[in-house]
Amino acid sequence: MGLFSIFSKKRDSGLAEINNSLYEAFGKVKQETSSIFSWIRYLRDKDIKNDWSHENISYVLGEHGAILNQLKKDVEELKIMSKNQVRTGSDPDPGRIRNEPKTYRNFEKNIIEHLRPNRKDFVLQQMLNLAAKKTFSTKQIEKIIVEEKGLCSRTTFYDYLRELKHKNLVKITDFGAKKALKTVQNDAGSD
Asked: Most buried in the list 2, 62, 117, 156, measured by CB within 10 Å?
C-alpha cells in the first residue's frame, strides 16, 4: 500500500494544481467577460445618445433650412417690390410709384384705409391663435408677432397682451419647465 499511496498523493497534488489553475483561469475569463459586457452597455448607451442628438440636430437643421428658404423668398419679393417702387427726386408726386397709374394708387390707398381699423383685431387673433397652442412663452409670441411678422410694435404688443389678460382671454401657465401663454378657453375645455 505504500507505493499506491505515493502515486495517489502525486496524482492528488497534480489534480489540485490543475484545479487551482483552472479556477484562476476561469476567474480571469469571468472578469474579462464582465469587463466586456460593461463596455458593451457603455457603448450602447453612447450610441443611443448619439442617435438622439443626431435626430435633434437633423430636426433643427430642417427648421433652419425652412426658415432660410422663406427668408430667401422674402428677399426676392422685397427686391421685386423695391424695383417697382423706385422714386426720382424730380417726381411731382413723391408718394406715387413710378409708372403706376394714379387710379391704382387710389385703389391701394382705399384698401389700406379699410384694413387699418381691423389691424388690431387681426393682431389679437394672431396672438390668440399662438396662445391656443399652449407651447409658446410670452417672449416667443412677442418675437413672432413683432419681429418675424412685423404686425405691431413691442409696446403695442404688450398693450394688446394686457387687454387679452384683462378680458380673461389668456393666462400664463406652466408648460413643462417653462411658462407658456395659453387661452382661457383651452383651459376650460381641458377640465
From this structure: 156
**Whether the model pTM is above 0.90:** no
Please list the residues that pair with 183 across neighbouring strands: 170
Q: Which three cell numbers stand for residue 106?
A: 387710389
User: In whole angstroms, what is the distance from residue 181 CA to residue 134 CA?
Assistant: 6
User: Mean of the per-residue pLDDT values for the chain?
Assistant: 78
Q: How do beta strands 178-183 and 170-175 pair?
A: antiparallel
What's the rounded Cα separation, in Å, for the pair 123 and 104?
27
Question: pLDDT digits over 55-93, tens only?
Answer: 888 888 888 888 888 888 888 878 787 776 655 444 445
Whether the CA torsion 15, 17, 23, 29 is positive or negative: it is: negative
What is the CB-side half-sphere exposure of residue 126 using CA atoms within 13 A? 20
Could you tell me how far CA 159 lies from the centroid of its own chain?
28
